[in-house]
Amino acid sequence: MKKGNKKSNVAGKNNENNIIKGGSNSSVGKENGNNTSTEKEEVNIVKEIVGFVIYVAFLILMVWVIITFVGQRTVVDGISMENTLHDGDSLWVSKISYRLHEPERFDVVVFPVYESDYNKEELEEEDYDDEEFEDEDAESGEYAESDGEDYDDSDEDSEEYEFDDDHEGEEYEYFIKRIIALPGEKVRIDEAGTIYVNDIPIDENYGKETIDPAMIGRCDKEVTLGEDEYFVMGDNRNNSEDSRFYLVGNLKKDRLIGKAVFRFWPLKKFGPIKK
């Protein structure tokens, strides 16, 4: 009986040991499971971060594509386009329009004017004044002379007025005006303020008022546009710096940033900009 009890006790101890060992194996299994779960969570977090970065990069790319190739919002600063546009008007400028078709007469366009254009304006105006002075001398039978020698500036003009079209890094501001004349056309303005295109009075009523003689600018003589040039004017004809003056002059197509097509603000004028 006693021996049997001893055996039973030993067996019982062995069973306890087995149970303890089994419990130990179970704990190790749980630890391994927790480690695997943690690793999966870390992988998921990395995936989420990568996905978010890709999403943000995609949005930035789309915004860049839209602003560069499709269009952008702009705000009118000044009164040169009254009564069509007013200071503070918020507009959408389409940059894709002129990738699909050529600019048209009476389009409202946006273009940059660079710092060097102001220097060009000063030089061109000096040259214009010299031409008038020489014409007056010719009519009176006199000629401009310097130190007793005839003054010939034909070569000097060709060098003095060569301007680099590369404006990289140069300061600029945007102008907004209306296209009045197209490539190859001829423009002039008479003393009564009538605009002629190819010797025909232009049929339009965008002008806020009749052009003052002092605002005729270089159009007192006929201005001929090149094959890729446009003539623009502000609707507020007596308060606009435009193609009548050398600061702007004849505009090449690649200078046109886009066409103003829609007005967001003020709300009472919300809608497309009509030609």
CATH C-level of the largest domain: Mainly Beta
Structural class: alpha+beta
Number of helices: 4
End-to-end separation: 118 Å
In short:
With 275 residues, this protein is α+β, with helices and mostly antiparallel strands. The chain contains 4 helices and 14 strands.
Give a quick set of tags describing it.
single chain, 275 residues, alpha+beta, Umud Fragment, subunit A, 2 domains, 4-stranded antiparallel beta sheet, 14 strands
Lay out the secondary structure:
Blueprint: H1 2-70, E1 71-75, E2 90-94, H2 97-100, E3 108-114, H3 115-139, E4 145-146, E5 149-150, H4 154-160, E6 172-181, E7 186-189, E8 195-197, E9 200-201, E10 223-224, E11 229-233, E12 251-252, E13 258-265, E14 271-272
Antiparallel strand pairs: 1-2, 2-13, 3-6, 3-13, 4-5, 6-11, 7-8, 7-10, 8-9, 11-12, 13-14
